[in-house]
Amino acid sequence: MDIAIYGAGGSGRELEEMLVSYPELRGLWDDIIFIDDTKEQGTFRGYQVMPYERIVELYSPESLEIAIAVGEPASRELLLNKVKNSGYKLATVVCPLAKISKSAYLGEGVIIIEKNVLVSEDAHIGDNVWVNANAIIGHDVRIGNNCQISSFAFIGGRTRVDENTYIGAAAAIRENIQIGHDTIISMGAIVLKDVRDYKIVMGNPAREIAENKDRRVFK
Ligand SMILES: CC(C)(COP(=O)(O)OP(=O)(O)OC[C@H]1O[C@@H](n2cnc3c(N)ncnc32)[C@H](O)[C@@H]1OP(=O)(O)O)[C@@H](O)C(=O)NCCC(=O)NCCS
Questions:
Q1: Over the stretch 47-59, which tens digit does the pLDDT of each residue have?
Q2: Which of 104, 130, 158, 202 fits a disulfide with 123 by CB distance 3.0 to 4.6 angstroms?
């Protein structure tokens, strides 16, 4: 079984480096391939790179798992639908230095990058969620599909984050909070109250300052 990293940007390169750095991960897949729809077939960092259409021609769903390595939740959702329509399974990759409670649930395609992530007791992380280094996900937290949890984010116990939401770096979210879907929690926000769907929140205490109309974090 090979692994294809969908996205040859920063996230994709981080994932590749993690895959080759830890002996526990190195043996899980035979070969690494990059998928990038903006690149012609060729090589990238010594690996094959090709657009998705070419992957579908060359690899059967039985021979390949795909890791979606893009930071925009809306793009994660789009790519998830695309690869699922072609019958591929998502690769779940967890840094061996993360602490995942035995009672936590990780969905298909969860990627936990590098060190010091904590996923606490009975937390439930949906499919296709990307969690960056040093994020803390409290007990009984529920994270919906396609979310991105940035470095040093803190999510307090029993909080719920609905699908396609972006949690910025070093944001802190109080316990028992409901965060809507397609929402952006800005870098460093201190979230003390529930956040509705499609909102952008900022500051300390965090306030809803705009609509996430175009569903884009990185402009
Ligand atoms: C929320 C966010 C998406 C807004 O981005 P944007 O729409 O491009 O907004 P701008 O940078 O143009 O800023 C708009 C205003 O909000 C303010 N602002 C932006 N981000 C802020 C933040 N995190 N906290 C407080 N204020 C912020 C800006 O100072 C600016 O204020 P002004 O109009 O008074 O000058 C972005 O700030 C953010 O937090 N992105 C996530 C970053 C991150 O977590 N990266 C880690 C992974 S690489």
A1: 999 999 999 999 9
A2: 104
